[in-house]
Amino acid sequence: MSFTPSKGSSKLGSNSNFNRRDRRDSVDSFDIQFNNSFDAALDNLKINNQSEIFSKKSISGSRENFEMASLAGAESFGTSNNGATLHGDNQPLMNNGDHVFDDENPRKFQSIPRQSAVDSFTSWIKNAFTTGSLGMRRSKSSISLGDQLTEREIHPDTTPIYDMHKYPSNEVSNAKYNFVTFVPTLLYEQFKFFYNLYFLVVALSQAVPALRIGYLSSYIVPLAFVLTVTMLKEAMDDIQRRRRDKESNYELYEVLGKRALVPSKDLKVGDIVRLNKGDRVPADLILLQSSEPSGESFIKTDQLDGETDWKLRIACPLTQTVTEADLLSKISLTASAPEKSIHKFLGKLTYKGTSSSPLTIDNTLWANTVVASTGHCIACVAYTGKDTRQAMNTTSPTVKTGLLELEINNISKILCACVFVLSVSLVVFAGFNNADWYVDIMRYLILFSTIIPVSLRVNLDLAKSVYAYQIEHDKTIPETIVRTSTIPEDLGRVEYLLSDKTGTLTQNDMQLKKIHLGTVSYGVETMDIVSDYVKDLLETGGKNLPGAGASRKNIASRVRNMIVTLAICHNVTPTFEDDEITYQAASPDEIAIVKFTESVGLSLFKRDRHSITLLHTASGTTLPFDILQVFPFNSDSKRMGIIVHDQKSDEYWFYQKGADTVMTKIVESNDWLEEETGNMAREGLRTLVIGRKKLTKKTYDQFKDDYSKASLAMMNRDQEMNRVVSKYLEHDLELLGLTGVEDKLQKDVKSSIELLRNAGIKIWMLTGDKVETARCVSISAKLIARGQYVHTITKLTKPEGALNQLEYLKINRNACLLIDGESLGMFLHYYRQEFFDIAIFLPTVVACRCTPQQKADVALIIRELTGKRVCCIGDGGNDVSMIQSADVGVGIVGKEGKQASLAADFSITQFCHLTELLLWHGRNSYKRSAKLAQFVMHRGLIIAVCQAVFSICSKFEPIALYQGWLMVGYATCYTMAPVFSLTLDHDIEESLTKIYPELYKDLTEGKSLSYKTFFVWCALSLYQGCIIQGFSQYFTGVEEIYFLKMVAISFTALVLNELVMVALEIYTWNKIMAITEIATLVLYIGSIPFLGEYFDLLHVKTLRFFGEVLLTLLLSVFPVWATKAIYRGLHPPSYAKVQEFSAV
């Protein structure tokens, strides 16, 4: 289809170059009507009217330079009564060579991406360095905008050369760091935590001789070790990301006009690329040619929108048959400004400067989609790098911090305050007669620095590595990979689960399970009867063909009519590969139905946009039909129809299938449809009502004329088209039957969702799929419980009255909310707080038609408003932003590739593995780390209390009680192994986490590490420290001559106290725990002879020493054990109750 300019534009068209610079820089109607931000600029300067006058004069009479906004008519052809735009892939293609334009509202379909202040400033700086300007282009009108907010004009012969620096590079980079930012970024991430900063200050203080206490290495080495391990781990992760990026960037492509293959990263806007089947689309492209004569090409968009069904794309009719040389030199394209929407695109293509054709979403190949059709296609690069839809819908990865670390950080601040108060108090009690009192305060701060032990970070980091190893080697969840080892504890704190649908909850494997004809139904076991009926389809001269039946049809004839209708009423295209037939369609439901008709003996043999041919398997006969009109399925109409002409019988038929909610009013009256659709829905089947209507030649001609007129209407076009369809077609259809299609769920999805819900986790399903599909899957997956009310909000575009839609949910908090992306977007924009104040309390929310960015926004908003941990799970490229925006991102390796898996914190192979990951590994990781952190703090607190008691008793002198090796050995050799062995402990058996998922609620409440438990451990440390140091001093005295005896008793009791406390805290013993306890005890006893510098070894050899140590240990441990046993008996925790009950 082409547009020929009138005489008024012949002069412009005669010049193939026609002053391209002027054409780019001038402000014509094309620019004004297309760009929203440009309109705003013109309005502000009060020259909008003048510009419109100028544009009318400059292109008066020209059909070539039509306004870009008028191209929206190609999209509006498929809109519903409310004016909402259809999914781009479901819009009808332009038929019969007629281009329909809608000038009623030229800005209706425009959407210009908004930049943040940071993005704008970055673009400004970049333009200043690359173009020498301040991000603004000069034009004749003295009004100019940055390139990212205006449409772009592309000339394949010049744009890749002269404008190569004007557009972003196509290089992909998912790396978090570069050579310059690596060290500063990591240091910031480490020292933004208070306790790490505290360790740094203490370590640096040892450089001052007056403040030095003990060995310098005892303060520097642990901190340096932590930083080194963290940097190495982050460096390895970033190197892996760069390797994956390199594979993508150096993927080679054939570019017309270039001898050698070109790497993906070197592709420029304007390059013309040849793609073959299976090739990844490297950038956002405009399809120019296809090896198919019809210009058709199928692509797989699973990495973009999560839908594994193939999408049909059409080459521009102007370029489908031109030579490659003409593609390079005689075409130009105009494309809209880059935007996030993957369902919208406006543009035009001009050939030889004289003929133009509009470009819509049907002509696009977005980046990271895959060519699915056999043969090849040729396309022009329109957007690269960060301008592509995929990049604009992807958020930058951030460094994730676990909730436990934040809680420990807050506790560390309290401990630091305690240290400061204690230090000042001791100096105050000693009196300020000392001129160096401030030095004493600093020395006390360093002496008590063990209260916040540097080994805390070392222990926690090593524990995370242990948890990662345990997860990856769990045989019940094979092939699980931990990609972010810093947040395993958050697996035990999840309160919101945001899940994708396709490939995550479902296998995306459809199968027709049942057909119902009103008086009889056929299931999987009885389909052989249907096959026998279809064998006789052509008997007796075709009397049983769709139009040849008698008024009273027998069952066999009704079955045949049903099968023929199913074989014709769809948008499936068959292809042959290696003598095997495969089906390509925009809906897996339709493929399932076509495969069903093939299985019963009636195959789809050939299909294009104008005809369809069926093959009767039993006789080998083909049944040809002409396609006269197709009415595609969309979420508004909820039905799909087709008008065909039977070439053999010369009859016209209108076939239609759709949801029962709309088809009930269209088919003839009956008394069984409502009941049977309800029965099938309860079985988890997706139902479609099938009907047909015979048309006379005269009726069809009248319909065609009226429909054509309605499609050209400039006012209320959609309403007029729908009115014509209702008048001639959609009434009194013959009801043929009902189909039930099953979307197979992932293994154990139902039980997994039930477990997670019982664990107190609120589940949201965010999908890009249709409303009806999401509803069916939610019911079959038990996401929506039986009898649960589903409150549906769809097609809400205006804020007026929107809050009224939420009123019911305020009353019934047990209802499920089903909302579409359009309505969700409106609430996010106008009533974000009000919407989420209600939604976050609902047990289930299902959001349909969500864009990738909407998914990410929902995750971020829930995190922001609730402060709770959010887990996101998905399997496609469209889920990456959501996964990266979550506290815990889980990717599933499946049919949609590994992109989500690579971007996630945890990679699993099936949804059901999530229950094991959260309920078992999440529980263990959190409870173990909580206990480990408290034990390490207890270990530091108790030694600090001993130091405080000694300082008070020694006339407030800042003298170190334990010096040199004793300080280093206490935190490492003598206590670390037994304390760290707590990472192998578990309080209940694994099976009980599935039997009693309610136990998970205790974790989300944060009871294992809270201010209450922290102060309990503080009190415990204070008691034990006072007992150990008090009795040690009581047995020996505090005089200097008894110092080594006192230290020997005190330190020995301290070490043994820790070993006994660890033993008392263990729930489930194993060999490693026992070995660490025994080995540590043996190590300490064996090292005593080498501690003559710190101990009085002669006293250690006496029986009195053993008696003093045992008495001190008994008084330190027994009251604690007794108190704990009594309290547990009176207030048993929930897991203890479960253990007792299961034991019985």
Q: Can you tell me about this structure?
A:
- With 1144 residues, the protein is of the alpha+beta class.
- Helices cover 44% and strands 16% of the residues.
- It contains 43 helices and 33 strands.
- The chain has a nine-stranded mixed β-sheet, sandwiched between helices.
- Helix 31 (880-885) links the parallel strand 31 and strand 32 (888-892).
- Helix 19 crosses helix 20 (588-599).
- The longest helix has 41 residues, at 913-953.
- The termini are far apart.
- The relative contact order is 0.08.
- Residues 1-146 and 540-552 have low confidence and may be disordered.
- Main pleated-sheet profile: 9 strands, mixed
As a whole number of angstroms, the C-alpha radius of gyration is: 37 Å
Termini Cα gap: 80 Å
The total count of strands amounts to 33
Helix content estimate:
40-55%
How would you write the strand order of the largest sheet? 14-33-32-31-15-27-30-29-28
Low-confidence stretches: 1-146, 540-552
**How much of the sequence is in beta strands?**
15-25%
Active site: 500 (4-aspartylphosphate intermediate)
Main location: membrane
Keywords: ATP-binding, Lipid transport, Magnesium, Membrane, Metal-binding, Nucleotide-binding, Translocase, Transmembrane, Transmembrane helix, Transport
Domain P-type ATPase N-terminal: 164-213
